[in-house]
Design a protein that fits this description.
Largest sheet: 2 strands, antiparallel
Oligomer: single chain
Number of helices: 11
CATH topology of the largest domain: Cytochrome Bc1 Complex, Chain D, domain 2
Strand content: 5-15%
Radius of gyration: 24 Å
Helix content: 40-55%
Bound molecules: heme C
Strand order of the largest sheet: 1-2
CATH class of the largest domain: Mainly Alpha
CATH superfamily of the largest domain: Cytochrome c-like domain
Number of domains: 2
Shape: extended
Number of strands: 6
Structural class: mainly alpha
């Protein structure tokens, strides 16, 4: 028995160790798949700002429309650009090899991005671009150093600058906290204002990541609801199964 416990402890060690890996601090965001308004705003930002380069090829416009409670005609009219039908997948016309030549790396498909990196990572990533003239697009990123993506949302966020070295930025003790508007963990601040305030920008990114999180697992709400029903069923079924067991075994001594 003792050996068994030691084995279990050994199995758990890597889990504990990987939870402790150093890296830039990630701001927390808790997705809310029940908040349809937030998801709708997120989808709007996604199709307007991201779909030009990235795809979400495992998601169809019509599926989003249905899950987010939007009439498909409205989605067709306002959220779909070009000659694309509402039943089609959310793709674009960018050729991968061209994109790789332009950006160094082609923009990856984002349907499952939050499953790959986690919501906190994507939420922090989109808010932590900062000015770096040494990079081809003039920007760098705290959680994805030397990223090939330009800061698409600069017009909204404003121009963010860093007061720290790259090594300091990577230290996990530094926090990025745009809610204060100016001091972001002492490292980042807004040098030129964008069209949104820091709070509004955070909210826009929250909605966007909330939508990306929905795309990564569109059946989450449904499976949670079914999960509760299954548990209630199992609870009630237990009494019947127990009564049946008593009946079967009552003559066995
Ligand atoms: C101008 C084209 C372009 C636009 C528009 C764009 N991106 Fe990107 N994005 C890229 C490229 C290129 C990469 C790959 C960068 C690399 O690997 O160095 C990337 C990478 C990413 C990554 C990291 C992927 C990974 O490796 O895990 C995320 C997340 C992301 N983009 C999200 C977004 C979101 C959200 C939007 C919309 C607000 C957006 N992007 C708009 C070009 C773009």
């Amino acid at each position: 028995m003792k050996k068994f416990f030691i084995a279990i402890m050994l199995v758990l060690v890597p889990v504990v160790a990987s939870a402790n890996t150093a890296g830039p601090h990630l701001d927390k965001m808790t997705p809310d798949p029940a908040n349809k308004e937030s998801l709708q705003r997120g989808m709007k930002t996604f199709v307007n700002y991201c779909l030009g380069c990235h795809t979400a090829s495992f998601q169809r416009y019509a599926r989003s429309a249905e899950d987010l409670g939007m009439p498909p005609e409205l989605v067709q009219e306002h959220l779909i650009f070009g000659d694309v039908k509402v039943g089609e997948q959310m793709t674009n016309a960018m050729v991968k090899t061209d994109a790789a030549a332009w950006f160094g790396n082609p923009p990856p498909d984002l349907t499952l991005e939050t499953r790959l990196r986690g919501e906190d990572w994507v939420y922090t990533y989109l808010r932590s671009f900062y000015k770096d003239p040494a990079r081809p697009w003039g920007v760098n990123n705290v959680v994805f150093p030397d990223v090939g993506m330009p800061n698409i949302l600069e017009g909204l966020q404003g121009e963010q600058v860093s007061h720290c070295t790259k090594a300091e930025l990577l230290e996990h003790v530094k926090t990025i906290d745009p809610l204060t508007g100016l001091q972001m963990g002492g490292c980042l601040s807004i040098a030129k204002k964008g069209s949104l305030s820091a709070e509004e920008f955070d909210k826009t990114i929250y909605d966007l990541v909330n939508y990306m999180s929905y795309m990564g697992n569109p059946v989450k709400l449904e499976s949670q609801a079914i999960g509760y029903k299954v548990l209630i069923f199992l609870f009630i079924f237990f009494f019947f199964a127990y009564a049946l067991k008593k009946e079967y075994w009552k003559d066995v001594h």
